[in-house]
From TrEMBL:
This is SAM-dependent methyltransferase. Keywords: Methyltransferase, Transferase. InterPro entries: SAM-dependent_MTases_sf (IPR029063), SAM_dep_MeTrfase_SAV2177_type (IPR006764). SUPFAM superfamilies: S-adenosyl-L-methionine-dependent methyltransferases. It comes from Streptomyces luteireticuli.
């Protein structure tokens, strides 16, 4: 999101990726980022809750796939590393596995490379999801795709930053086509048809979404193409395989999640 749009005062150089990092418990933010995040917490608490739930979904999906034996992950639009990261979960369950992170942000790349330095089975590539052909051509990604084993492609909270004129359906089609059979696509996306509660300031939400593109459940489902959807399909993130010990009956936050398999 454009933090300058959301806040009603100068924020002194806050950065959207670092503010999101603050939302989900990371430590990459500067004082300006923490200040902007605190403002948003007051004005749109459900936006913060949705971002936290997105992170929870990502962890559950990686664990679920790892239990199936999937040990190769491509995490596109990975953002600043916040533990537990995809590789921490995946490699703890399959130490011989591989995780490649991708992000367009140079600072994200620096932090991620520093984190995974010396960790066998991990890599980071700089790339823009809006150019999927160039992204999948990266040697580190090609190595996974041509390994002869299924790959999980993770698109967690990234497609809602892709406008319609950048053709997100084409982007996801290119990514799906590149994956070997038996692979999985993991998607989470801000919802355009789940209402926000009255405790959220309408003007703050409007500003937050000036460079985000919420989409309906049907639109999110199209990103899976002809992949076979894993039950329960595309649902509010809190309802996708809720964590053990919880009922999944928390209020629906405005973020969808789903996992599909290439058959």
């Amino acid at each position: 999101m454009t933090i300058e749009n959301v806040t009603q005062r100068p924020v002194g150089g806050s950065d959207p990726a670092r503010v999101y990092d603050y939302f989900i418990g990371g430590d990459s933010g500067l004082e300006a980022d923490r200040s902007a995040g605190a403002w948003i917490r007051l004005q749109a608490p459900d936006l913060l809750a949705a971002m936290q739930e997105n992170r929870s979904f990502l962890s559950r999906a990686v664990r679920w796939l790892s239990r199936l034996g999937i040990d190769q992950f491509i995490d596109i639009g990975s953002g600043f590393p916040v533990s537990p990261n995809t590789h921490e979960i995946a490699l703890s369950m399959s130490p011989s596995g591989s995780v490649v992170y991708c992000d367009v942000d140079l600072e994200v790349g620096q932090r991620t490379r520093a984190l995974i330095a010396g960790t066998k089975g991990t890599d980071f590539v700089q790339g823009d999801i809006r150019n999927p052909e160039k992204l999948v051509a990266q040697p580190a990604i090609q190595k996974l795709i041509h390994s002869g084993r299924p790959v999980a492609c993770v698109l967690a909270a990234v497609l809602h930053f892709v406008p319609e004129d950048a053709d997100p359906e084409r982007i996801t089609a290119v990514l799906r086509e590149s994956l070997p059979h038996g692979s999985y696509l993991v998607v989470s996306h801000v919802a355009g048809d789940i209402p926000w509660t009255e405790r959220n300031n309408v003007e703050t939400l409007r500003r937050a979404f000036e460079d985000m593109y919420p989409r309906t459940r049907a639109q999110v489902a199209k990103f899976f193409g002809d992949f076979e959807m894993v039950a329960p399909g595309v649902v509010p993130a809190v309802k996708w395989h809720p964590a053990e010990g919880t009922s999944g009956e928390k209020p629906d936050l405005a973020i969808y999640a789903g996992v599909g398999r290439k058959v």
